[in-house]
Design goal:
Mean pLDDT: 90
Oligomer: single chain
Strand order of the largest sheet: 2-3-4-1-5-8-7-6
Structural class: alpha+beta
Order of helices and strands: EHEEEHEHEEEHHH
Radius of gyration: 16 Å
Helix content: 25-40%
Length: 155
């Protein structure tokens, strides 16, 4: 299994306040914005709206423990194979599923209870959707990815 650590996620109470801090004060550049629910920055940091994240992961907006407040994110070239391998070796928090932006993901716990998310590379998402018959514009609409990114992924 070939994995690449691509970032980490902070669950935040007020995503707009946090965006202002990281973008205006620290100068981080947004590389992806999934509807102001999940914001990804150049360099690997991402912010998730805490209530959305907790509901998405645990079907509850209550933080269960401090380890439930941090998520480490890896991307996989073959998310299905990664899931098959990981589900045998680590406690599964969320089974393989598709996010609203069409990315396949799953989550496991590390030995200390920290959340480890594995996600399909967004380039792979674009190619998968294209192979399923979606047009470039439909892929842009479904993934919230910029048209330039989608066009580049399809080359």
């Amino acid at each position: 299994m070939k994995l690449e650590l691509t970032g980490f996620v902070l669950f935040v109470d007020d995503i707009m306040t946090s965006r202002k801090f990281y973008e205006e004060l620290l100068g981080l550049k947004v590389v992806i914005n999934h509807g102001n629910i999940n914001i990804g920055y150049q360099g690997g940091l991402a912010l998730w709206d805490r209530k959305y994240a907790q509901n998405n992961i645990f079907a509850s907006d209550k933080v269960k423990s401090k380890s439930d407040d941090v998520e480490i994110y890896f991307e996989s070239e073959d998310i299905d194979a990664s899931y098959a391998q990981m589900k045998e070796k680590a406690p599964v928090i969320n089974q393989l599923d598709v996010q609203p932006w069409q990315q396949k993901i799953f989550r496991v716990s590390d030995p200390d209870g920290f959340i480890i998310e594995f996600g399909e590379k967004m380039e792979s998402v674009v190619k998968r959707l294209h192979n399923e018959g979606l047009s470039e514009n439909e892929i842009v609409d479904k993934t919230f990815m910029p048209k330039e990114f989608v066009a580049s992924a399809l080359k």
